[in-house]
Amino acid sequence: MEATSTVESLEARWAETEASPLDNGSVELIVRRPAPDQREQLQRAAFTAEGGLQGDDWLRRHGDEIEAQITLMNARVAQLLAGDKARWAEAGDQLFVDLDISQDNLPPGARIQLGEVVMQISTLPHTGCTKFARRFGGHARKWTATDEGARQRRRGVYAHVIQDGVIKVGDRIRKMP
Length: 177
Fold this sequence. Notes:
By secondary structure, the protein is an alpha+beta fold. The protein has a single domain, classed as M1 Pyruvate Kinase, Domain 3 (Beta Barrel). It has six helices and eleven strands. The strands form two sheets. Strands 1-6-5-9-8-7-11 form a seven-stranded mixed beta barrel. It has a three-stranded antiparallel sheet with strand order 4-3-10, with no helix packed on it.
């Protein structure tokens, strides 16, 4: 990300980016966080309703906050902010997906299937933290937090597992009825 980026330049570049699919998207990256500030990029991972992403430190950090069990971020937003795919994991999310995760497309309570796993979209807002701003710049945090950024969930969305299974990079994502 160039140092001269601003909220306005991010918005202009976003407007030029092709939109993610509304349905039948794909899993682009899976990231496990085994300890603070550690990231492991995986090709496949097991997810459970009890513990979320197997081997992730979510339980240690959030305890019984089931609504914040899994975080998904739009891969096109990650690409815009981080550039190189190797840096996407710095955002701190577990799943990077090519799917429209906006409030309009996936309202709270919506269910999606990723590989074998079914998740439900949370009511909790996913906002950028100081680590996110430090890694991608204050302009990135501001851009994701605008009214439109929040509606589109540019910073991502929380979900929780309701059907255990395995997710692999490349798996299809579909909205459930």
